[in-house]
Design a protein that fits this description.
The chain is of the alpha/beta class. The chain has helices at residues 30-34, 45-61, 78-89, 103-114, 132-141, 163-172, 221-227, 238-248, 257-272, 275-296, 325-334, 360-376; strands spanning 19-20, 71-75, 96-100, 119-123, 147-151, 153-154, 159-160, 176-180, 199-203, 214-219, 312-316, 337-338, 340-341, 349-353. The strands form 4 sheets. Strands 2-10-9-8-5-3-4 form a 7-stranded mixed sheet, sandwiched between helices. The protein has a 3-stranded antiparallel sheet with strand order 11-14-13, with helices on one face. A two-stranded parallel sheet has the order 1-12. Helix 5 packs parallel to helix 6, helix 9 crosses helix 10 (275-296) and helix 10 (275-296) runs parallel beside helix 12. Mean pLDDT is 94; it is low at 1-13. The structure holds pyridoxal-5'-phosphate.
């Protein structure tokens, strides 16, 4: 393995891990990884208490309380949580409107299709936030719509969608609103206190800086109570799992015990950093350094700065004939940095994440490595 640079971020000791500048899984702290270095019996009191604690902490981060807005964690990646949310909280005779401007919105449409939930898509350009006028028109035209699903930060590009406006319009039209908050939760404001939402889905391995292995859904208590009859899956039934937690505090099926212990430790660091403000502030600084550095290197970002969330930045592929994503990727990985391929349908691009246990100096070191690699590859002089 190459020797990777150390960050000055206090809890980060990178050992031989590359710095992950991706949309997840992300770079985690040594402390978080160390929390996995013991075994837990899933039916033991200590583990039951640990589960209750992370559920409570997540409800509070979402601006709810465990009573008003219970958190139901679920085994698997973030998509498992989104699928569980749709299958458990949207009635079979509902009609879903998916607000789509990227791959994650399209994935929600795919979930609705497979779960047999009637749905329509309102699609817009990948580099622009959801068009509120078009959304208002669609709501007015189609009164059969019962549920709206929005991706808060569309990780395909890093576009931030207008959550509060969509929520206000959904509320005044009397519709339920479900949010894929996967890449925003913990870093960008999203709160049941301020915004009327039915439920949101997120995961341990994005802005909370835990390791991959669980997603979770936090939602209005009534939404879970209503759902019990129409779940589309045994293992992804959030309503049954919530009942289980209420009865004996236990997971119905084998929980990823180490992942949950790591999340609890990651949440300690989230609190120590100043919660959402601290974490969001660090990511905003990372993003600012990154976009300024890309600009200095002559690389163009595809999202308008006003619509850019400080989560992930999409870079237009350089026009140079010397450009090859694979070569750029390998050269950066050789220096200890993993970037991410693009997902834009219309344009060749790549992505660089601003999230994870990464601070400003680490981002500056990455930019220095990027400059050196671009020189090596003949992309700049
Ligand atoms: C990461 C992400 C997901 C979940 O992806 P997984 O690969 O299943 O973890 C869903 N939606 C958005 C917006 C995401 O960024």
């Amino acid at each position: 393995m190459p020797h990777f640079q150390q960050s000055v971020f206090p809890s980060m000791e990178l050992s031989d891990s590359p710095l992950l500048l991706t949309p997840g899984p992300l770079t985690t702290s040594a402390e978080t990884r160390a929390a996995m270095n013991r075994d837990w019996g899933s039916r033991d009191e200590a583990f039951i208490a640990l589960t209750a604690r992370i559920r409570r902490r997540l409800s509070l981060i979402a601006g709810g309380t465990p009573e008003s807005h219970p958190c139901v964690p679920i085994q698997g990646s973030g998509t498992f949580a989104v699928e569980a949310m749709i299958g458990s909280l949207i009635p079979r005779d509902g009609k879903v409107l998916v607000l789509e401007n990227g791959a994650y919105g399209r994935r929600i449409g795919e979930i609705c299709r497979i779960l047999d939930r009637p749905f329509v898509m309102l699609s817009g350009p990948e580099t622009k936030p959801t068009d509120l006028d078009a959304f208002g028109d669609r709501l007015a035209e189609d009164p059969a719509i019962t549920d709206i699903v929005l991706v808060h930060c569309e990780t395909t590009t890093g576009v931030l969608n207008p959550l509060d406006d969509v929520a206000a319009m959904a509320e005044s039209a009397g519709k339920r609103l479900l949010i894929d908050a996967m890449s925003s939760f913990g870093a960008l404001p999203i709160s049941f206190r301020d915004t009327r939402m039915t439920a949101l889905a997120a995961s341990s391995n994005k802005c909370l800086e835990g390791v991959p292995g669980i997603g979770f859904v936090i939602g209005e208590k009534d939404a879970f109570a209503r759902g019990t009859d129409f779940a589309a899956s045994l293992s992804l039934d959030l309503c049954a799992q919530l009942k289980g937690f209420e009865v004996n505090g236990q997971w119905r099926f084998t929980p990823p015990t180490h992942v949950i212990a790591a999340l609890d430790k990651a949440l300690d660091q989230f609190d120590a950093e100043g919660g959402l403000e601290g974490r969001g502030g660090r990511y905003a600084d990372n993003c600012h350094r990154l976009t300024a550095g890309l600009d200095r290197l002559g690389l163009k970002t595809v999202v308008d700065p006003n619509a850019q969330a400080p989560i992930i930045v999409t870079v237009a592929a350089p026009q140079s004939p010397a450009y090859d994503f694979g070569a750029l990727y390998d050269a950066l990985l050789g220096r200890g940095y993993a970037i991410y391929p693009g997902k834009l349908t219309e344009q060749d691009s790549f992505r660089i994440g601003c999230i994870g246990a990464i601070d400003g100096p680490a981002m500056d070191q990455f930019l220095a490595a990027l400059e050196a690699v671009m020189k090596e590859l003949g992309l700049i002089r």
